[in-house]
Amino acid sequence: MAVGPSKLTLRAYGVGFGDCFLLTFSYAGATGDRHMLIDFGTTQKPPNPRKLLMMDIAKDIVATVGGHLHVIVATHRHTDHISGFATNAKKNGTGDLIASLKPDLVIQPWTEDLNAPIKSKGPGRGLTAAANDAFRLSLRHMQTVMVASLRQTRHLPTALREEIAFVGQNDLSNLSAVKNLAKMGNNGKSAYVFYDKKIPKLAALLPNVQVDVMGPPTIKQKADVVSQSAKNTQEYWHFASVWGLRAATSELTDGRELFPRAPVHTGRAIPIENRWFMQRLKQTRGNQLLRIVRAMDNALNNTSVILLIKAGKKKLLFPGDAQWENWEHALKKNASELTDVDVYKVGHHGSLNATPKTLWNAFTKKSASEGTKDRLCSVMSTRTDSKHGHRESGTEVPRDKLVNALRSDSELRSTQELEPTGDLVLKLEFDL
């Protein structure tokens, strides 16, 4: 009978604004080390990065795992979580290198199953086919709407245009990475998971390590993920019905002029009495586009896989970028399981919306004395001064208010520690 691991090594790679974690479970005897890679992507590299940063990270992963990777988890398809899985025509991209490790299992959310065509019955038995199909279809339409939205930013004020582009580009489908993840799964085994989904093969790959799927929920498990109140500005799932409409997509992308015969004035040719109005109109248009791209960004975040990993005496919580609708379901169903977490991977790079106060307040090991083994360890992958949000509006990432709480009530470790030296990896070890 296989014994459990005696040690866990957690490597947090300095990708900048993104996630890349390698968990190594160390076993005695013939079992040896077993490795789980959770995400590999970035949208904004750290300050003064290495020229080939992502390739250097990929090579370090290869060297660490000794040529074989047991499990890959792609929590959701945002670029800052999967861009490192991209391949190229020469077959020497970072994703090609990861694929050479021949992973035994690739875990992704149920929304990412490329082999589950629209009109299927959805994941699991007895789920509402129409609702699951509609949601998956809305995610596909989202790509078209995002492209159209980004096209509309060219005449906006610079700061607003850059913020929309930073958020929007993250939502564009990284097709090469998506296909590579699917192919790696086909060569080994794919698991498209949802709340409470069991992954039998995982027990053989990580002996005596329990991995519970806390999210995302399916439509049947939490139907209101597609009908949240419009009054709640933190929760944007209700927009899915808008970007899922073919008519709306067509109007955004068919290129027709609204008033084709109207005179067009640009630059200094705009009558002086209209310039103030034009400036305000562009600002308003930009704010509306930003709201749309943030809505879509949050919807994808809420497809994040949430994993609770139990190894020996330790519990580790890896939630991807999960936001409220995803968390709400997990907290309702498994609140007691989440209280005594030892290691918390901070959601969404330090975004306030991704660490609900209900969750944070429930962590009992925050109260342990500073410097003791029982104290909660928070691990954050982010970048200092990212382009995500603004301090003036309280939307900056990482959020100062949250970071202060993490630093005060837990042992906070962040990839920001790597920025001054340019080191690749933050390495943490835990006795199990």
Describe the protein in words.
There is one protein chain. The protein is of the alpha/beta class and 432 residues long. Helix content is 34%, strand content 16%. It contains 13 helices and 13 strands. The protein has a seven-stranded mixed beta sheet. It has a six-stranded mixed beta sheet with strand order 7-8-9-10-11-12. Helix 4 (129-151) packs antiparallel against helix 5 (158-171) and helix 4 (129-151) packs antiparallel against helix 10 (272-301). The model is unreliable at 117-122 and 227-253 (pLDDT under 50).
How many distinct helices? Answer: 13
- Count of DSSP strands: 13
Low-pLDDT residue spans = 117-122, 227-253
Helix-and-strand structural type: alpha/beta
Portion of residues within helices = 25-40%
Largest sheet: 7 strands, mixed
The helix/strand order is EEEHEHHEHHHEHEHHHEEHEHEHEE
Tell me, briefly, the overall form: globular
Distance between the termini: 18 Å
Rg, Cα atoms, Å: 22 Å
Beta-strand content: 15-25%
Mean pLDDT: 80
Physical arrangement of strands within the biggest beta sheet: 6-5-4-3-2-1-13
Index terms:
432 residues; 13 helices; globular; alpha/beta; 6-stranded mixed sheet; 7-stranded mixed sheet; single chain
Task: Chart the SSEs and their pairings.
Layout (H helix, E strand, L loop, with lengths): L6 E7 L6 E7 L6 E8 L12 H13 L5 E3 L5 H4 L11 H6 L5 E5 L19 H23 L6 H14 L3 H13 L2 E4 L6 H6 L3 E7 L24 H4 L2 H8 L18 H30 L4 E6 L2 E5 L5 H11 L8 E3 L11 H6 L14 E4 L19 H10 L1 E4 L10 E7 L1
Helix pairs in contact: 4-5, 4-9, 4-10, 5-10
Brief digest:
By secondary structure, this protein is α/β, with parallel strands linked by helices. The protein contains 13 helices and 13 strands.
